[in-house]
Amino acid sequence: MAKFGFDVDEVEVDIAPDYSPIPKGEYKLQALEAEEKETAKKNDSYIKVKFEVVDGPHMSRLIWQNFNIVNPNEIAQRIGRQQLVAWATACGKPDAADTDLLIGKTFAAAVDIDKGTGGYSDSNTIKGFLQSKAHKNVEKVSAPAAVEAPVAPAAKSGSNPWD
């Protein structure tokens, strides 16, 4: 038997961290760490990033996000790369080519909740990276989405557009 060698009553017990999703919304985040990983199929790779909420009622909560960088599916690869550039741009480093330049930089992000599948719980995901301009205006910087062309209203025969 091994004795602890200290008074256990003098130690504050740390409660297990809360990994339940935070509510959908905009949050100020910073990346704590990033690592390039190979997928199980060994034919593609992604960057796994651990983000932390840095202010507000959910401060210190963690969000993990994967960014595809090499993928046989061209669409998945393009989206992952666009998301990385959006993150870098939100950090004020649009020309960054290495995650080391982004670690510890704060930025705003739109966070959402992905429904868990295959026995996994619901989790947070970053849906958009927000770029702050002069700390007043916020402009969304994210992967481009398909946009439908606006449809002009049908003209009434014999009427003026201003009628």
Overview of this protein structure:
The protein is mainly beta. The protein has one domain: OB fold (Dihydrolipoamide Acetyltransferase, E2P). Helix content is 10%, strand content 35%. It is built from 1 helix and 6 strands. It has a 6-stranded antiparallel β-sheet with strand order 3-2-1-4-5-6, with helices on one face. The longest helix has 17 residues, at 74-90. The radius of gyration is 22 Å and the shape is globular. The model is unreliable at 134-157 and 159-163 (pLDDT under 50).
Task: List its salient traits.
163 residues, mainly beta, OB fold (Dihydrolipoamide Acetyltransferase, E2P), six-stranded antiparallel β-sheet, 1 helix
Strand order of the largest sheet: 3-2-1-4-5-6
Looking at the structure, what is the overall shape?
Answer: globular
Reading off the top of the CATH hierarchy, the class is best stated as: Mainly Beta
Fraction of residues in β-strands: 25-35%
CATH topology: OB fold (Dihydrolipoamide Acetyltransferase, E2P)
The main sheet comes to: 6 strands, antiparallel
Task: Quickly give the CATH architecture.
Answer: Beta Barrel
Order of helices and strands: EEEHEEE
Distance between the termini: 92 Å
